[in-house]
Amino acid sequence: MLRAGIVGLPNVGKSTLFNALVANAKAEAANYPFCTIEPNVGVVSVPDERLEVLAKISSSEKIVPTRIEFVDIAGLVKGASKGEGLGNQFLANIREVDAIVQVVRCFDDPDIIHVSGSVEPIRDIEIINLELVLADFDQVEKRIDRVRKQAKNSKEAQAELTVLESLMAVLSEGKSARQVSLSEEEESLIKSLGLLTRKPIIYAANVAEDDLATGNEWVEQVRKFAETEQAKVVIISAQVEAELVDLSEEERQEFLASLDVEEGGLKSLIKATYELLGLRTYLTTGPQETRAWTITAGMKAPQAAGVIHTDFERGFIRAETVAYQDLVTLGSMNAAKEKGLVRSEGKEYIVQEGDILLFRFNV
Ligand code: GDP
């Protein structure tokens, strides 16, 4: 399962946000009786409006959304890359995630101490990013030493060296490696390094409830910064999300309406994280369940079938396919069949976002 790590300075609202994530996940845990939850890992459903629509068409008994994991990576402080605090452990945790959500404090509250004395989101971002940059710097430096020797006799090592040097140029200015644009081929040369500052990132601007609808000056600063990295910004209010957890549906609606918003930002954050990972969703639907499955872009039908079960991949024969929009427009699978919109696809078919699939396979 894909993992996103939540990072940020102390007292920016990480735990509040993470607890809200977990509380929502627990409410749904009935769907996943066999899932064990580690204290710092929350498994959350990815909101997908299509599921409700399809479940109605198929009269499905239940809906199973696709999921991602959020890991609370506490303990990043200045000096982490030099082993301060939980430094190294912390960096190792980040190395394992597929994407980073950096919570940035964009609310003022005299009662909540700010570790650096004042609310100043860009400085905060830079403190965190610098630790990650330093860790990457060390790694790239070591790698360069090794590859330089090989580069004399190897074209591939030479190519890698060029890429490493372009990364080094940016890292040594204290900037994130994601600012370097690389071709797919170049990317593959350095993939095994697992660079922290090349992982996709979302900045979660944590605002006070009154700013949730409009944002504020701090959010604008974060946006400006994020643009330099082509990163995304999502406005959330961790505190609003924490309060929503204990409310009834009716009370939730009232509370959100009073703030002039539809949600506290958590849903947007989960969706944005999923999209950030470059994932695609295909759907299966029937009387038992309507379900979303996660694949990566470009996956072919047999591999996509393998996400459900390895037997499906091994014994793959064909996939019956209809696009979500076609099915919804026509209202039923039979109507879609009559119009010739249900196709039979073979092994080379590249599954598209929103495909509804039914696999034929040998056991
Ligand atoms: P962490 O150290 O980053 O995990 O921060 P916490 O989630 O523990 O939050 C630190 C304090 O800030 C807690 O007392 C939270 O209740 C409070 N807090 C979190 N988000 C907000 C917010 O949006 N507004 C205000 N006023 N307080 C918040």
TrEMBL record:
<feature type="coiled-coil region">
    <location>
        <begin position="130"/>
        <end position="157"/>
    </location>
</feature>
<keyword id="KW-0479">Metal-binding</keyword>
<feature type="binding site">
    <location>
        <begin position="11"/>
        <end position="16"/>
    </location>
    <ligand>
        <name>ATP</name>
    </ligand>
</feature>
<dbReference type="Pfam" id="PF01926">
    <property type="entry name" value="MMR_HSR1"/>
</dbReference>
<keyword id="KW-0460">Magnesium</keyword>
<keyword id="KW-0547">Nucleotide-binding</keyword>
<dbReference type="GO" id="GO:0005524">
    <property type="term" value="F:ATP binding"/>
</dbReference>
<dbReference type="InterPro" id="IPR004396">
    <property type="entry name" value="ATPase_YchF/OLA1"/>
</dbReference>
<dbReference type="GO" id="GO:0016887">
    <property type="term" value="F:ATP hydrolysis activity"/>
</dbReference>
<dbReference type="InterPro" id="IPR027417">
    <property type="entry name" value="P-loop_NTPase"/>
</dbReference>
<keyword id="KW-0067">ATP-binding</keyword>
<comment type="function">
    <text>ATPase that binds to both the 70S ribosome and the 50S ribosomal subunit in a nucleotide-independent manner.</text>
</comment>
<dbReference type="GO" id="GO:0046872">
    <property type="term" value="F:metal ion binding"/>
</dbReference>
<protein>
    <recommendedName>
        <fullName>Ribosome-binding ATPase YchF</fullName>
    </recommendedName>
</protein>
<dbReference type="InterPro" id="IPR031167">
    <property type="entry name" value="G_OBG"/>
</dbReference>
<comment type="similarity">
    <text>Belongs to the TRAFAC class OBG-HflX-like GTPase superfamily. OBG GTPase family. YchF/OLA1 subfamily.</text>
</comment>
<dbReference type="InterPro" id="IPR012675">
    <property type="entry name" value="Beta-grasp_dom_sf"/>
</dbReference>
<dbReference type="InterPro" id="IPR013029">
    <property type="entry name" value="YchF_C"/>
</dbReference>
<keyword id="KW-0175">Coiled coil</keyword>
<dbReference type="InterPro" id="IPR012676">
    <property type="entry name" value="TGS-like"/>
</dbReference>
<dbReference type="GO" id="GO:0005737">
    <property type="term" value="C:cytoplasm"/>
</dbReference>
<feature type="domain" description="OBG-type G">
    <location>
        <begin position="2"/>
        <end position="256"/>
    </location>
</feature>
<dbReference type="GO" id="GO:0043023">
    <property type="term" value="F:ribosomal large subunit binding"/>
</dbReference>
<dbReference type="InterPro" id="IPR041706">
    <property type="entry name" value="YchF_N"/>
</dbReference>
<dbReference type="InterPro" id="IPR006073">
    <property type="entry name" value="GTP-bd"/>
</dbReference>
<dbReference type="InterPro" id="IPR023192">
    <property type="entry name" value="TGS-like_dom_sf"/>
</dbReference>
<dbReference type="GO" id="GO:0005525">
    <property type="term" value="F:GTP binding"/>
</dbReference>
<dbReference type="Pfam" id="PF06071">
    <property type="entry name" value="YchF-GTPase_C"/>
</dbReference>
